[in-house]
Amino acid sequence: MIRRDFLSMISLGVLGTAIAGSGGGTSASAETIAPLNLSDAEWKKRLSPLSYEVLRHEATERPFSSPLLNEHRKGVFACLGCDLPLFNSDTKYDSGTGWPSFFRAIPGHLNMKADFKIVVERTEYHCARCGGHQGHLFDDGPPPTGKRYCNNGAALQFHPA
């Protein structure tokens, strides 16, 4: 094998890993989710000022400020913007970070994208229906997935079972 071929293989491997790790920008699902497109004025009417900033402008709420942090009943956590179910309550755990955290999302209900706002690359996720910013995905969660979906409580609503 010549050096050029070796370097090409390494480049393709790194690129393939980056694409696979990012989720390719979306999450695949057999379910088709119809998008919800509202004007900025409609979002402002529908949401509190904090939820509007989080969902529509990718803000982050203060840690330990969400009442959903201590929500432990059975049920579903859904997007506050459009009510799409995002997480089942049996996937919620206490990460100690100050934000509601989950180790698994409902398949196909989140879209992923790379986020460089703090210079270091992170994986940001949004609601697949309304595009509302939810939080960031990290690889320091518990088994069985090893994932931590660190979610803004201001972007969620809880529906008890």
Could you please describe the fold and organization of this structure?
It is a single chain. With about 160 residues, the chain is α+β, with helices and mostly antiparallel strands. The protein has helices at about 5-20, 40-45, 50-55, and strands spanning about 75-80, 85-90, 90-95, 100, 110-120, 120-125, 135-140, 150, 155-160. It has a 6-stranded antiparallel sheet with strand order 3-4-8-7-6-5. A hairpin with a 5-residue loop joins strand 6 (about 120-125) and strand 7 (about 135-140). Mean pLDDT is about 85; it is low at about 1-30.
Note the gap between the termini: 60 Å
The best one-word shape is globular
* Strand adjacency order, main sheet: 3-4-8-7-6-5
One letter per element, helices H and strands E, the order comes to: HHHEEEEEEEEE
Secondary structure elements and pairings:
Elements: H1 3-22, H2 40-46, H3 49-57, E1 75-79, E2 85-88, E3 92-93, E4 101-102, E5 110-118, E6 120-127, E7 133-138, E8 148-151, E9 156-160
Antiparallel strand pairs: 1-2, 1-9, 3-4, 4-8, 5-6, 6-7, 7-8
Question: What key phrases describe this protein's structure?
Answer:
161 residues; alpha+beta; 6-stranded antiparallel β-sheet; 3-stranded antiparallel β-sheet; 3 helices; 9 strands; 22% helix; disordered N terminus
